[in-house]
């Protein structure tokens, strides 16, 4: 997959309005500053459009698929129309199903629970834990970290060639890494999987907010993503794709909504006739606001011109990478190398700095929110840092002496709502901190690096 770099259309290339643009936060050094949210990869701010759509609907809120009243009917229509909007956004095939879940983690766990008997699963060790861990009850093969996209395809082909050719198999791969932002060769991996009779699920948690995802064009069998990373933080996620395995599986949750008919048996038990549609895996009262907010975000991104958003984000990616490259103490983490296409997710370490300390100073002294740690991708980050990927150590904030190798990393991430000023401030902050050091003293409290209190905590 390549990143689209369509010609910029200046009229639509401003950042999209998001909530929180005017929120100020206190600086430990005194005064306040507008918060720079540069942790989109964890959770992106809500699009203003999503918030407005949800607010406009809220007075009409009603139960879904249960209720004869007008607002129940309206809410049910909204819910089902949202399913169609998401299917369109993902370029779903006619026979695909969109199942609403709570998140990517939930979607992948649902698919894991729906695997046919004896299914073999192939997953790279570089995956986010949400993609790495749900398959542990199946026959899993963990694939070594590839160092190029071509090597990723070769590794998969080799593993698939050795598999039992008659049983079902599933490959799980991320579209864009939550650590390096690098794009994985999804289309080529899908072709390799299918050539060996396997299916493939795309973890699009980090791809969908940054790049159009077309399930039919990529020829993947399923796509999973989360609303809260797609500017729709109301607790819903999506699993879209082939209906057959899901239709044949036990319902993910047993309860109302998933069942069509329930009756007592003469022997005292209960007979259940489960739905065969998406409802089979959506038991309980659906989160109509969460689902509607995802549909609203899909529409907003499409109407803004996703290619234009991609092009603007690529400009920001270049600026961040060029800015960081000017600071020799900074090492950007990369699996596939400098030329790999990537989205607005960049992780790095700073020589002589503990990453937690650096992230704390960015927050306390500049009002910039980034993330530090191992980003729920422990084996990958450890490989990139040159530490032992098998190290079972905790992902806390170990103190590193200046000059010592960092045991965790810093991640800056941004997207459709990021103003240029946030990027400029971030780059200025990185070079000032490296050049001048922190202006405050910090200590570790409950595993997190925090500023010391009081005037005495100011460094000389
Ligand atoms: C690549 C990737 N997959 C899956 C997830 C899990 O997403 P969620 O926490 O919304 O379930 C994340 C979250 O950071 C992610 O980055």
From TrEMBL:
It holds the Pfam family Aminotran_5. InterPro entries: Aminotrans_V_dom, PyrdxlP-dep_Trfase, PyrdxlP-dep_Trfase_major, PyrdxlP-dep_Trfase_small. Residues 38-426 form the Aminotransferase class V domain. One of its GO terms (molecular function) is transaminase activity. PANTHER family: CYSTEINE DESULFURASE, CYSTEINE DESULFURASE 1, CHLOROPLASTIC. The keyword 4Fe-4S does not apply. It comes from Streptomyces californicus. Its cofactor is pyridoxal 5'-phosphate. Keywords: Aminotransferase, Pyridoxal phosphate, Transferase. Gene3D superfamilies: Aspartate Aminotransferase, domain 1, Type I PLP-dependent aspartate aminotransferase-like (Major domain). This is Aminotransferase class V-fold PLP-dependent enzyme. Signal peptide: none annotated.
């Amino acid at each position: 997959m390549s990143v689209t770099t369509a010609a910029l259309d200046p009229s639509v290339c401003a950042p999209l309005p998001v909530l929180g643009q005017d929120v100020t936060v206190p600086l430990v050094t005194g005064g306040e500053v507008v918060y720079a949210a540069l942790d989109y990869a964890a959770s992106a701010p809500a699009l203003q459009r999503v918030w407005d759509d949800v607010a406009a609907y809220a007075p009409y809120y009603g139960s879904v698929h249960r209720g004869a009243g007008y607002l129940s009917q309206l809410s049910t229509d909204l819910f089902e129309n949202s399913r169609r909007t998401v299917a369109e956004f993902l370029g779903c095939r006619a026979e695909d199903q969109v199942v609403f879940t709570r998140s990517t983690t939930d979607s992948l766990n649902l698919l894991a629970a729906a695997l046919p008997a004896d299914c073999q699963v192939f997953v790279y060790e570089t995956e986010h834990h949400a993609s790495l861990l749900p398959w542990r009850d199946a026959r899993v093969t963990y694939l070594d970290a590839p160092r190029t996209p071509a090597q990723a395809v070769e590794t998969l082909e080799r593993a698939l060639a050795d598999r039992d050719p008659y049983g079902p198999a599933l490959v799980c791969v991320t579209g864009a890494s939550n650590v390096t932002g690098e794009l994985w060769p999804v289309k080529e991996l899908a072709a390799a999987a299918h050539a060996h009779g396997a299916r493939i699920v795309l973890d699009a948690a980090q791809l969908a907010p940054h790049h159009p995802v077309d399930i039919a064009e990529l020829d993947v069998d399923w796509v999973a993503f989360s609303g809260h990373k797609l500017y729709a933080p109301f607790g819903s996620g999506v699993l879209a794709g082939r209906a057959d395995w899901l239709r044949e599986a036990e319902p993910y949750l047993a309860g109302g909504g998933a069942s069509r008919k329930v009756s007592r048996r003469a022997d005292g038990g209960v007979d259940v006739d489960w739905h065969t549609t998406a409802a089979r895996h959506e038991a309980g009262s659906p989160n109509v606001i969460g689902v509607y907010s995802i549909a609203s975000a899909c529409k907003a991104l499409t109407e803004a011109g996703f290619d234009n958003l991609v092009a603007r984000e690529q400009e920001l990616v270049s600026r961040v990478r060029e800015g960081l490259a000017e600071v020799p103490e900074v090492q950007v983490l990369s699996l596939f190398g400098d030329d790999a296409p990537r989205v607005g997710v960049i992780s790095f370490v700073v020589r002589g700095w503990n990453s937690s300390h650096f992230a704390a100073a960015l927050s306390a002294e500049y009002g910039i929110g980034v993330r530090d740690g191992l980003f729920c991708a422990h084996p990958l980050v450890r490989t990139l840092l040159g530490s032992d990927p098998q190290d079972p150590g905790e992902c806390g904030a170990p103190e590193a002496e200046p000059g010592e190798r960092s045991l965790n990393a810093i991640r800056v991430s941004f997207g459709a709502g990021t103003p240029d000023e946030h990027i400029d401030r971030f780059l200025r902050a990185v070079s000032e901190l490296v050049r001048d050091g922190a202006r405050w003293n910090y200590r570790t409290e409950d595993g997190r690096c925090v500023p010391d209190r009081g005037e005495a905590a100011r460094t000389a």
